[in-house]
Amino acid sequence: MASGEVVGFQGGGGVTDGVDFGVGGWVAVRGDLIDAFGKEESVSGDNGAEWAAVSRGYVTDGEFDGAMKPMGIKHLVVIIGEMAECATAAERLGALTARLESSLRGKAEVVRLSLACLLSRGHLLIEDVPGVGKTTLANALARAVDCGFHRLQFTADMLPADVTGVSVFNTHTHEFEFKPGPLFTNFLLADEINRATPKTQSALLEAMNEGQVSMDGRTYPLGRPFMVLATQNPLEHHGTYPLPESQLDRFLMRLRIGYPDAANEREILRRGPGDPFAHAAAVLTGQEVIDLQDQAEQVRVDEAIVDYIMAIVERTRRHESLTLGVSPRGAQALYRASQAMALVDGREYVTPDDVKRLAVAVLSHRVALSTRVAAAQRTAVAAERIVEEILTLTEVPL
């Protein structure tokens, strides 16, 4: 087989230098280095790696036009077959999924939604009754990645400086020095976040939205990746402060774990307390997470899927039981999460099922119920049912 020199790569709307391929796509190879159209070739990158490829069309002036005749050819387009980077990405996600499923038994869908939240560069709010694994999931997700991790147990007497940090006067330099707080990490577990006062809760807003902290007229950037994993108990209201709508909107997803089935609960009983992987080695590095997040942004989204997302969002704004529908930021969150879910499932494109699986987790905490509905049943449950109803009423693209 001939070896073609990679001169450019295009896939999922992005272009790279041909060394680090994304998940699927087209690659342009010098036509004079290819034996014949339709023949399997060995494509080499500048780093010495090789990929199997089959030529599928021609390009003129650097763009793929699907032409079948070699008139005015500048480069030959081949479609990449089994790429090492693709396999590595799938293996990494598979290892991470297996680790989380071992820590949280019987909740495979919750694990996949959590991974989609991570790859979307989002923040996760886990809301459920005590003892079902909220903290276990957050701990497992944070410790499976070789990054900084801090846990904060929120209480009513906690101050904003306890989260963001404080400026301390240095008697030697006669200057104030900023001492970073627990917020300066990659994964922050905010346990029982609704027990903190609104003033302390608001200290997280800028960090969650902008990835930075402003203190004493200076701005301090946070590291990447950065993810807040917050837990709260929806039933116990004594000594709690409900999260304001502005902060709820900063969370990409709100998940409910629920009770395990009988078989998995039996396994939990036999295994005993604690996470068996609490001290196990991490399966991903921080840079690998960033690379996966970048790959998720390149997943293709058809215009029909965009119309489907917009139709769902529009129905939330016109629903009689809602006084406040989903904002454009919420629609953007559903779009990004759908791309990440496709990558978690090993696909290069988004399907309507991705949107349907994510709609309740991404949208239900972004809507406001009318007084009549809110008084009749618990707010979170009612919001989820309304989003599910909207999904059944919205036409699904074929």
Task: Give the total of beta strands.
Answer: 20
Helix content: 25-40%
**Termini Cα gap:** 40 Å
Tell me the major beta sheet: 5 strands, mixed, barrel
The number of helical elements comes to 14
Based on Cα principal axes, name the global outline: globular
Low confidence ranges: 1-39, 45-87
Cα gyration radius (Å): 24 Å
| Helical/strand content category | alpha/beta
Question: Percent of residues in beta strands?
Answer: 15-25%
Question: Which strand order does the major sheet show?
Answer: 1-3-7-5-4
The whole-number mean of residue pLDDT values reads 77
Task: Describe the structure in your own words.
The protein is of the alpha/beta class. 37% of the residues lie in helices and 24% in strands. It contains 14 helices and 20 strands. The protein has helices spanning 84-103, 108-119, 134-143, 161-164, 198-202, 205-210, 245-248, 262-271, 286-297, 303-318, 328-344, 352-363, 371-376, 379-393, and strands at 3-11, 14-16, 26-30, 40-44, 50-60, 63-67, 75-80, 124-127, 145-146, 149-153, 165-170, 175-180, 187-191, 212-215, 218-221, 227-232, 253-255, 284-285, 322-324, 368-369. A 5-stranded mixed barrel has the order 1-3-7-5-4. A 5-stranded parallel sheet has the order 10-13-16-8-17. A hairpin with a 2-residue loop joins strand 1 and strand 2 (14-16). Helix 1 crosses helix 2 (108-119). The longest helix has 20 residues, at 84-103. The two termini are 40 Å apart.
